[in-house]
Structure formats: structure tokens, C-alpha cells
Amino acid sequence: MAEVGRAGISDPGALLPRGFWAAVEVWLERPQVANKRLCGARLEARWSAALPCAEARGPGTSAGSEQKERGPVPGQGSPGGGTGPTLRSGPKRGMACCELEEAQGQCQQEEAQREAALAPLRDSGHPGLAEGDEGDFPAADLDSLWDDFSRSLACGNSEMLAFLTCPGAGSQPEAQRELDVVLRTVIPKTSPHCLLTAPRREIVVQDVLNGTVTFLPLEEDHEGKLKVKMSNVYQIQLSHSKEEWFISVLIFCPERWHSDGIVYPKPTWLGEELLAKLAKWSVENKKSDFKSTLSLISIMKYSKAYQELKEKYKEMVKVWPEVTDPEKFVYEDVAIAAYLLILWEEERAERGLTARQSFVDLGCGNGLLVHILNSEGHPGRGIDVRRRKIWEMYGPQTQLEEDAITPNDKTLFPDVDWLIGNHSDELTPWIPVIAARSSYNCRFFVLPCCFFDFIGKYSRRQSKKTQYREYLDFIKEVGFTCGFHVDEDCLRIPSTKRVCLIGKSRTYPPSREASVDEKRTQYIKSRQGCPVSPPGRELSPSPLRVAAGSAGHCDGHQALDARVGCVAGALAAECGAGPQAEGPWLPGFHPREKAERVRNCAALPRGFIDQVVLQVANLLLGGKQLNTGSSRNGSLKTWNGGESLSLAEVASELDTETLRRLKRECGGLQTLLRNSHQVFRVVNGRVHIRDWREETLWETKQPEAKQRVRSEACKTRLCWFFTHHPDGCALSADCCPFAHGPAELRPPRTAPRKKIP
């Protein structure tokens, strides 16, 4: 046994030992956040077991496997939420400190709640196994695996038994202890440059009372049965000494450690990188509002599909004609397509279908997601209000339409299986509604980004949640009101907004379609502010809508004809808009304009921008008169850097007409000042004059690639300080990245246009 790393932890928030188990749970469920060469992990089974007592070793001694109690694998969570390693009730066995005793008492109630929550799941499927994943492990084989391992410990493998019972935060290793045992599969990333792609199984033994977690790799014997390997065994240990906590990483047999660089990194990585992350996670007092990534689909299938699509469509990055970042948008759409393909593949398996699902992508943007799904065999089309240059690249097999979507009875899709809203902006809250009214069998997938209500921007109502979390809850509420079971998942995409919401099934039978549609109508009106009908005076459904509902809402054209005029007419009548037989479902909705107006201050007249910049700079320099012509280089000792003012203080000095013009732009005054990067620095709401002496020192520490890009742009613009600052430029002409006068100007470098094959 060898200790490869040890870290002391400061715990001012008294988060340990519970924080340690929360950190362990992250490493168990999401190892990819620490080891970037992994795609993830799948927890296949979890059960309680026991090891032989230290003095009871000998032939015929078996572990207390009769104590095994299997239950389905809990979802994302931490011990604080009742889904992590559980402190068992009973006599206290050498508790390290009062915090551990207190945590034990708190967990007894949580254990009862956890057992009650898991009880319905135990009645279905195989006990102890995660349902729906490939490669499920039979419960009988788990019994045999653990019993064989326990028997080997009792029959002479004293070194391994001592390693497993090594005291950490607890003591009394000679007593028989109850353990939390997890069977997990570690999934490497699939890559053409990596030969190792097969998942690896291991048993994770968590001794909560003793503060240790031991990872035991599994291998197949000559008969194909799994057994515990004696190599690549390591342990994470929590210990406590003199009011200080420590986390250690130990290896059972260093000479037997064989690193593959992926599932089994080098011991130095365990003792440095992993240990540092565990120490950090243990004292982070924050709980995620979101699920772990890819919780609804097979991680293994996703990893394979993503790598295949990434390899297939990587050339798109080289020929991207849009002004947006190709690296971000191409690989983001590849990841979303991989997710949908696996989601739909598993749905076909569940429903016994062979035909691939059809779809419509509302607000499809660049259309790449539609192109990939079409190319992979799914019939469908994309609709967006504005055509993109890249559409011409896809060819006739990719169906993209330039059209504005206004939610009404004419924008239903009765023959489509799925509606997609990928950053669909103002259409996002409407997509569950359109899906629900298109047909009973229509489902939806939305990836919310910008915050829109049914009409206009979404207004926050709860200050205790982040705006993003509150908006996701709003879209979930819309989906539930529309009659969907709404699932939430987190995608692996290069975006801060990566939570998707999925409506795959309904909460009601087809015969109740008419009554549920009334509730949808009432809910939509309540969001606009129109008074909802009081109890007893609810809108009565028209005979046509009742007929459509009783028909199961499956004949899309009949449902469409039956609904025409019902929702819009009733809504218009109550809101005073007059009869609208085929009008919008909610008057006031406006799709975005076809021509996207630039509102980042870049389109403002150059003279207006220069005037505001001079005025703000004058304020920061204390009213010192600015030059309007050329100036000498400033002295390093006397150069005036000015003071800092808040944005509010700056705005109070500007005239009404200037503020009015700026208010029409996104970000207003702050955007204009940030755009004037050469002159100003805006930090935490305060405006400063930029001192390029500090910037030059910072730039010398940048990577070589960034320095090369900056050098190519050098001297392509005039130096504002050389021209306008009372003390001139703080840098000499050969050090300043801007031109000191027209004679130094260089023509800007223009990149060659990429050819589209």
C-alpha cells in the first residue's frame, strides 16, 4: 500500500464529512468532470453488504452477504439529498468527531425517506439494476461475484482485507461493518486516435463510518465470469486529526498499477489532479439546480454517435460562410443531433417501431441540425423567418423554408412526430402548445436560450431562483399545462444554456382532449393578463372541438378544422379584439423581423460615437481640455489616467437626446463604451480610462497564437490617445499597437474567402 497524495482541508463552513461524500458521488456519477478522457459512467447496481471481521479470517468464513439489500440506482444527487452513501442507524462505532455523529442522526430520517421513494421502483424490473441501460448485470451474478470476493478475503487475502478496512475518519477496523457497494461502468470517450474504447466495470466499496472509498476493477476469467482484479486498486480516504481534515489517495499495490492514460491514469494524476478536485468539491457549499448530463439516454451510445457525427461533419467548420463562430455552432449542433438520434432510437425500441421519426425544427437558424437529421435518415424540415447563406450548401435533400411562424390554427403539424425548438427564442413557450394541438401523438424537444413569454420578454417572478432556472420551470409548467409529462436533461454542448426539456407522453387519454385544451387556453390568457373566467363560468367547448377530442385528436386535419375559430374566437371575444375566425391564439404576438436590425451601437453614426467618447473621456479626466489634433508622446511620470465613475454618474452628465438614442440600442451606454475598447475599461459597472502600459504587460503573458493575431492587427488604426489625450500616448510609437499618426498606418489584413465545395 502506498499513499500517492494527501491534502489538508480547511472547513470553516462545517461541511465535512458530508461534503466529502458529495464529492465522492460526483466522481462516481460524473467522472468526466475531472478526467476529460472519459465520456461518463453508468451506475448499474447499488446494494448493502459486509466484510468479514478482522479476527474471523479463515477457511469457510463468508461475508455477511445475507445483509444485501438491493434497490434501483438513485438519480443525480448527493448524500445531503438522500441518494449518496448512507450513514446507517445503530451503535456508534468509533466516530471520528461530533460532526460525524450529528450527520448520522440527520441521515436516519433521510434513509427512511429514500427507502420510501425507492419502494415503487423495487417492484418493477430487476432488483438492484438500472433499467433501460445496455449490459444490465443479473442479480444472481452480483451475489456470486461479491460472495466469491468476500470468501477470498476470509481465506487468506489479508492484505486486501486490511486495505479495505483501513481506518480513516472512523476506527475499530476489527468490527464487522456494513458497506455501501456500487457496480459502475466507466465509459471512455470514443475517438479515432484512441485505441481503448471498451467500457470498464468496477466495484466501488464505500465504508461511510470509516471514511473510505475503494475502487476494485473487474476482469473476466477463462469462463467469462467477472472477478475482482488485484491490480489498479485505489482508495480515497477521509481522516481527521487535531481539528483538521485530510483527504488521501492510496494505491493497494503500486507495482501492479498499469496505467492506460484513460480509465486508469498515472498515480501522480490521482494524487494531484483528482485529489485537488475532491478537496475543492468537498467544501463547496452549493447544490446544482440541474440534472447531470445525459441522464435520459445511454451515455455509451451517445459517445459513439457523437464521435461518428463529429468525424462526418467536421469539414463544415472549414467552409462555414456565416459570421458566427463555426467551432461552436457546428459541434453544438452535432451534439444536439447525436442526442436526438439516440433519444429517438431508444423511443423506437420502447414502442416497437421501425420507421424513423419525422420532425419540424421551428426557428432552425443556420439549418445544420436539420441537415444532419435529414442526412441520418429522419424525414423533416426546418422553418426560419430569415434565410441564411449556408442553406445553399446543404443540397436538395435538406428541406429548409423561409417563413414566419405565428401560433395559430394554420401553423399546426398533424403528421409530424416531433417539434424541435433549438434556441427558438419567441417561439419557445409556444412549441409545447403547438405540439399538443397538432396531434395527440406529437412530441416536443426544446432547448431554451433567450427568455420569452407568450408575448414579449419573460418577466421574473421569483428572486430566490436564477433567471435561467425560473425560465426553465416556466417552460416545464407550460408543457405540463398542455398535458405533457415533461422530462429535463442537460446536454454536453459548448453553451451556458444547455438544459433541454422533452415532452414524450401525455398525462391524459385522447378522450379528454377538449377539456385539456380549454385549460391550455385559460393558461395562455392568464399569462397575457386577460382575466380568467371565474369558476362555474369556464368556456364551454364547441361541438366541433368535442368531436375532435373524442376522436382521439389523432386525425390532424379534422382537429385543425374543428379548432379553427374556437380558441382565437373565444380569446378575442373575452379580450375585446372582435371575432377572429382564423387569427392568432393570442393577439399581440409578433414574430421577429425578417431583416435583423443591428442594435449593438455599431450602426450608430461615427460622428455621434466620437462625440460621446470625447465627452465621457473629458469627465474621467476631470474636465481637462482634450486635444483635437496631434500630440506628443506622454511622459510616464505625468500621464493622467483620470478617475473612475459609475455608469449612472456618466449617464447623468449626458444630454437627454444622447441618452434617448443610446436607449434604443442593446446595452445602451455600457455597450458603446465597451465597444470603444481602445479608450475605456468597464469593470463592475465603473468606467476607467484604459492604461495601455498595463495592457502591454498583460499581453506578453498571452499564448503565442493570440500574440500572433494581435501582431497582425498592429498599427491598422490610429491611436486615440496620441490624437486626443492632453498628455498624449503613454507608450512610445514603437511600443504602441496603434498608429501614432497617418504615416504609421498599415492596411488591415484581409483573410482570403473560403471556397464552398
UniProtKB/TrEMBL annotation:
PROSITE patterns for this protein: ZF_C3H1
Span of the signal peptide: none
Enzyme class (EC, first level): transferase
Location(s) in or outside the cell: Cytoplasm
Domain C3H1-type: 713-743
Domain of life: Eukaryota
One Pfam family in the UniProt entry: AdoMet_MTase
Keyword S-adenosyl-L-methionine among record annotations: yes
Record keywords, A-Z: Cytoplasm, Metal-binding, Methyltransferase, S-adenosyl-L-methionine, Transferase, tRNA processing, Zinc, Zinc-finger
Any one of the GO CC terms: cytoplasm
This protein's record includes keyword Zinc-finger: yes
Protein EC: 2.1.1.211
Stored InterPro entries: tRNA_uracil_MeTrfase, Znf_CCCH
Zn finger region (C3H1-type): 713-743
GO annotation, biological process: tRNA methylation
Region annotation (Disordered) ranges: 55-93
Catalytic activity: uridine(44) in tRNA(Ser) + S-adenosyl-L-methionine = 2'-O-methyluridine(44) in tRNA(Ser) + S-adenosyl-L-homocysteine + H(+)
GO molecular function: tRNA(Ser) (uridine(44)-2'-O-)-methyltransferase activity; zinc ion binding
Annotated PANTHER family: TRNA (URACIL-O(2)-)-METHYLTRANSFERASE-RELATED (PTHR21210:SF0)
Family stated for the protein in its record: Belongs to the TRM44 family.
Chain's role: Adenosyl-L-methionine (AdoMet)-dependent tRNA (uracil-O(2)-)-methyltransferase.
Protein name: tRNA (uracil-O(2)-)-methyltransferase
High-level lineage: Eukaryota, Metazoa, Chordata, Craniata, Vertebrata
